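Project standup — Tuesday

K.O.: blocked on the structure for the chain from last sprint. Re-posting the sequence here as requested.
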Amino acid sequence: MSIQAGTHTIGPGNGSLKVKTGREGAAAKMGHDLVIGVGSWEGTVEGGDSPSVKLTADASSLEVLEGSGGAKPLSDKDRGDIKKSIAGKVLGSSPISFESTSVEDNGSQLLVKGTLSIAGGSSQVSIPLSVGADGTVSGSATLSQSDFQIKQFSAMMGALKVKDDVAVEIEAKVPTG
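H.V.: unblocked you, prediction finished:
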């Protein structure tokens, strides 16, 4: 299924954008694997003869949705501390942006290639997106923080770290044609 020709806006009203992190290090069992939601983001998907995708996200809008594993359950205080660390030590205040350089549409899947900018660093990425019959566009990509010069967050004198690779998942509804 292809995306309908025209410009379509996506964001929290018709989609979700999430980041999934893991943990590593000698004290990994103390930390949590996280699902982080992006609360403020918007994008445009251009369908038709010249397809394109653009997206921006507010780095300060990231919120912990879930935390699994760990020696104890994730508390509200933990969630607040993580949000503060993301904004202050990991991402800063720079907006997150993506702009496609090419979109290959084979009818059932889009391969979107482009430039992703996070925390002042940029890297070329490829994101495969599935397009459902109901107009749901979904996909995920594994990104390495080090590709964007982001230093892995660590605690307990480095014994607990967020893994370098994080998964980014997007899902949104657009008109199909």
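K.O.: great, moving the ticket to review. The chain has one domain: 6-173. The mean pLDDT is 91.
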